[in-house]
């Protein structure tokens, strides 16, 4: 066997920011952090909110919670203050761990400011976290390299003064916003050893929020035994893991893909992997492939939206790098169009790598439908067959199982170890969302086709959910953010095809009397959505809609709106539209606001 390491290769936003963290060093950091949390009163069963960029301290914080049997609730650092507040309140988190600020490519994100805003909002609603622990990341340069292995060398990009003073200013406010504490100060004082808390296999490991069709996010709960077993096993087989591999999943830990295949799956297998803080286009569009060569990555896992984005720049930024180490290329998050699949296979993988198109969900914990590399004959765009122990079925509207070639609702007939156990604090919602429509089955919410060879092809969501760049959003949450604006009486949001994002948001808004539709208004609406939900929910199109097509019972007909958005006059059956003149009016009003 060739030399192999047990570690994370950490690659920062800047290519020069690199560190290696061995398993031994990680263990010490995790123990110290567990001791820190324990000192702040965190016990088994408590909830800890984590709002951080992709830095080693994020992994340390989540594992420290796990060590104590406390539930981590990680909120993606691209979410707004309001979203963070909502999630802290929903599971009454005792403590928040965050970061001063960070760069995403060239964009500076003032994370602590957003965290403070969220904590202020929590307080307004009568809830106060015990304390807020802040990792000095952008301000790290001031600390020197330190002796902590998880600390990066000083960041080259200058840290603007406003950043540092911002965090210090908030420190002064500590008495009235709960206590802000510096991570590095607490970690320095903490002991290196910490006994793990013994947990039952069915004890909860973490909460991760995912969009729900009612608009209120659901706190998906995963367990210690089932989840970890499932991610460990899927990681091993789906990526054909071997000890000498270098694995790299580009997903942010703020999403389930990062939980399962940046943290728990690789670590449970003793894998060496890459932890990347940056983005695929910074400092240039060949960043991913330069990282592949730098660490000799063997197994690589990313999303169709990233592949489509990079495809636009042609083959040269890819072929400029050797990529000779690559063996398996994975994709996840949304259906991959055959064109992007072929580019991934032919250009990135130089036709020698297996592609694993993995279908799964936050709720499933790990892969459900996926090829096994080298063993499953591939078809571009198909997630192929179920993983071991997974029993899919395709149902028609009346809940009958369809055999052979068929298209309908994708469901699972029997549980698997990684299935979510409940919606945090709302078990009824768990039952209603996944098991009510077709009793006895787990309903994915996705449409699916099975071809004559038995291959499964995901056709996309069939509920009121949208998939923007692999991130699920509910139409209801975007609509409620829109109608909170004083000018908006009613709003309807539909998905619209987009060459890079897969789907983007197309919003129809009905104005209140006395308001006029203008670019200023659409800008305000976009800003409002960014503030309420986060930048990923920013609409590409906002259309003035004097009326909306509704059924006689008042239900908005999104099917018709999707067609109008695409200027497709083939509307199918419109006999149930209460006022058909609305449709004509909307076609005439297709004056689009393009982002
Ligand atoms: C939804 C789940 C699972 C991690 C990322 C998203 C869509 C996911 C695929 C795929 C077609 C896919 C589905 C699913 N999806 N992977 N390989 N092919 N569609 O997690 O936010 O819970 O979203 O993503 O629509 O239901 P999520």
TrEMBL record:
SUPFAM superfamilies: Acetyl-CoA synthetase-like. One of its GO terms (molecular function) is ATP binding. It comes from the Eukaryota. GO terms for biological process: acetyl-CoA biosynthetic process; lipid metabolic process. Residues 17-422 form the AMP-dependent synthetase/ligase domain. The keyword Ligase applies. Residues 477-555 form the AMP-binding enzyme C-terminal domain. Its EC number is 6.2.1.1. GO terms for cellular component: cytoplasm. Keywords: ATP-binding, Ligase, Lipid metabolism, Nucleotide-binding. InterPro entries: AMP-bd_C (IPR025110), AMP-bd_C_sf (IPR045851), AMP-binding_CS (IPR020845), AMP-dep_synth/lig_dom (IPR000873), ANL_N_sf (IPR042099). PANTHER family: ACETYL-COENZYME A SYNTHETASE, ACETYL-COENZYME A SYNTHETASE, CYTOPLASMIC. Belongs to the ATP-dependent AMP-binding enzyme family. This is acetate--CoA ligase. It comes from Ursus americanus.
């Amino acid at each position: 066997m060739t030399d192999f390491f047990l570690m994370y290769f950490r690659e920062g936003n800047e290519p020069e920011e690199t560190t290696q963290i061995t398993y031994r060093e990680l263990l010490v950091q995790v123990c110290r952090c567990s001791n820190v949390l324990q000192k702040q009163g965190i016990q088994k069963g408590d909830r800890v909110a984590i709002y951080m960029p992709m830095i080693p301290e994020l992994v340390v914080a989540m594992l420290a919670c796990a060590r104590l049997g406390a539930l981590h609730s990680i909120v993606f650092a691209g979410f707004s203050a309001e979203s963070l507040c909502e999630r802290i309140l929903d599971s009454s988190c005792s403590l928040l761990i965050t970061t001063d600020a960070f760069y995403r490519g060239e964009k500076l994100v003032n994370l602590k400011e957003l965290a403070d805003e969220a904590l202020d909002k929590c307080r307004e609603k009568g809830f106060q976290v015990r304390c807020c622990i802040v990792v000095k990341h952008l301000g790290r340069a001031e600390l020197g390299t330190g002796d902590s292995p998880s600390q990066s060398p000083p960041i080259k990009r200058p840290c603007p003064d406003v950043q540092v003073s911002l965090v210090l200013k908030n420190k002064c406010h500590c008495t009235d916003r709960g206590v802000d504490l510096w991570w590095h100060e607490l970690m320095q004082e903490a002991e290196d050893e910490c006994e793990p808390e013994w947990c039952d296999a069915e004890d909860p490991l973490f909460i991760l929020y995912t969009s729900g069709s009612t608009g209120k996010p659901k706190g998906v709960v995963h367990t210690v035994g089932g989840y970890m077993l499932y991610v460990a096993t899927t990681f091993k087989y789906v990526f054909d893991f071997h000890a000498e591999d270098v694995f790299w999943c580009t997903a942010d830990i703020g999403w389930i893909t990062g939980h399962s295949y940046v943290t728990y799956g690789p670590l449970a297998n003793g894998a060496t992997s890459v932890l990347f803080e940056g983005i695929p286009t910074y400092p240039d569009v060949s960043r991913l492939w330069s990282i592949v060569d730098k660490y000799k990555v063997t197994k690589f896992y990313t999303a169709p939206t990233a592949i489509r984005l990079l495809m636009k720049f042609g083959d040269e930024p890819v072929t400029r790098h050797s990529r000779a180490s690559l063996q398996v290329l994975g994709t996840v998050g949304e259906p991959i169009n055959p064109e992007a699949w072929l580019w991934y296979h032919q250009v990135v993988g130089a036709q020698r790598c297996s592609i694993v198109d993995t279908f799964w969900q936050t709720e499933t914990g790990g892969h459900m439908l996926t090829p096994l590399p080298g063993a499953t004959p591939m078809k571009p765009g198909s997630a192929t067959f179920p993983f071991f122990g997974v029993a899919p079925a395709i149902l028609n509207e009346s809940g009958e199982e369809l055999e052979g070639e068929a298209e309908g609702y994708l469901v699972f007939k029997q549980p698997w170890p990684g299935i979510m156990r409940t919606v945090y604090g709302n078990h009824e919602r768990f039952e209603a969302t996944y098991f009510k429509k077709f009793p006895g089955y787990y309903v994915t919410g996705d449409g699916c086709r099975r071809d004559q060879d038995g291959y499964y092809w995901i056709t996309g969501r069939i509920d009121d959910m949208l998939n923007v760049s692999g991130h699920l959003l509910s139409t209801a949450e975007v609509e409620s953010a829109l109608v909170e604006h004083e000018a908006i009486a009613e709003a309807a949001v539909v998905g619209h095809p987009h060459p890079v994002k897969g789907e983007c948001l197309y919003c129809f808004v009905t104005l209140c009397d006395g308001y006029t539709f203008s670019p200023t208004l659409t800008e305000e609406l976009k800003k409002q959505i960014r503030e309420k939900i986060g930048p990923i929910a920013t609409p590409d199109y906002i259309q003035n809609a004097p009326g909306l097509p509704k059924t006689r019972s008042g239900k908005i007909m999104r099917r018709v709106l999707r067609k109008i958005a695409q200027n497709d006059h083939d509307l199918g059956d419109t006999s149930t539209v209460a006022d058909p003149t609305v449709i004509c009016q909307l076609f005439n009003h297709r004056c689009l606001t393009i982002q």
